[in-house]
């Protein structure tokens, strides 16, 4: 068996490896240098953004992007050194064929990534803001390049893709320093609206945490079925969920105690049931049986029984009158005299 051909190939491979070994070693050294350069660029970006007003997530994103971009540049330079025949143009041409397939496969990932960058740049909300998206409401924990996580008020974590937050409506409850709260209070129809309004405003102004400017308000908003509804409105600062619940608790307690102490009725919803139990004699008589209509002044329509009785009496009188004028049985008929 002749091993000379195999030995020649192995020998050729060894010589080729030794010829490119300096390039390999130099490429490794260059890549290590680029790792330190990437770390330095990341630290530089962090220091440049340290005193600026950007959010923490945006600063983290920019520092990571600068680090990754520097590493990618280092990989391209290293490969070019190790393989002289390789150029970045050849890499782009190779990726051009599979770029379409990769784009379709990672469409959602790229969409969320771009949406995350836009959210971090435009900052419609920040970390620790309290937002509401559809059925989810809570405090923003992190804004990553793929998704945003919020912590609900009952202690659960919700992960929402950034594309959803970018293209849909999001309520930012803590976007401003103040927030207005309101609640409807029903008073009795027999109570004075002005007095109730005065007591409500006194109660709201005396609650700790309610702002004096803008001033609290008490507006009549509805004449309901069993009450006159007055809407109390007041402002608080800060507008976080815990502060809202605490302020509302104190305000409602103060309003209830103040109105009750001053004799203002707080009626609960009631319904009036009218039983249709009239007899034939009272059916339709507005003097004796009312179903929500006023009795009226002066004469009122007669009941159906009265009208029917009067019709019967009139018919009997007409019948008696007819019988009185009719001739008795067997009597000769009256003779008609001829005209003169």
Keywords:
Alpha-Beta Plaits, 340 residues, SH3 type barrels, elongated, alpha+beta, 3-stranded antiparallel beta sheet, single chain, 5-stranded antiparallel beta sheet
Strand content: 5-15%
> Could you give a short account of the major beta sheet?
5 strands, antiparallel
Number of helices: 8
Low-confidence stretches: none
Instruction: Please state the second-level CATH architecture of the domain at 179-261.
Output: 2-Layer Sandwich
Radius of gyration using CA atoms only: 46 Å
CATH class assignment of the domain at 179-261: Alpha Beta
Tell me the distance between the termini. 175 Å
Shape: elongated
Lateral arrangement of strands in the main beta sheet: 4-3-2-1-5
Q: Which class do the helix and strand fractions yield?
A: alpha+beta
Quote the CATH topology of the domain at 179-261.
Alpha-Beta Plaits
Helix content: 40-55%
Task: Tell me how many strands there are.
Answer: 8
H-E string: HHHHEEEEHEEHEEHH
On the 0 to 100 scale, the average pLDDT is 81
Question: Could you describe the 3D structure shown?
Answer:
- 49% of the residues lie in helices and 15% in strands.
- The chain is an alpha+beta fold.
- Among the domains are: 13-92; 122-172, SH3 type barrels (Roll), CATH 2.30.30.60; 179-261, Alpha-Beta Plaits (2-Layer Sandwich).
- A hairpin with a 2-residue loop joins strand 1 (130-133) and strand 2.
- Helix 1 (4-48) runs antiparallel to helix 2 and helix 6 crosses helix 7.
- The mean pLDDT is 81.
- Residues 183-265 form the Mechanosensitive ion channel MscS C-terminal domain.
- The chain crosses the membrane at residues 20-41, 61-83, 89-106.
- Residues 276-340 are annotated as: Disordered.
- Residues 277-290 have a biased composition (Basic and acidic residues).
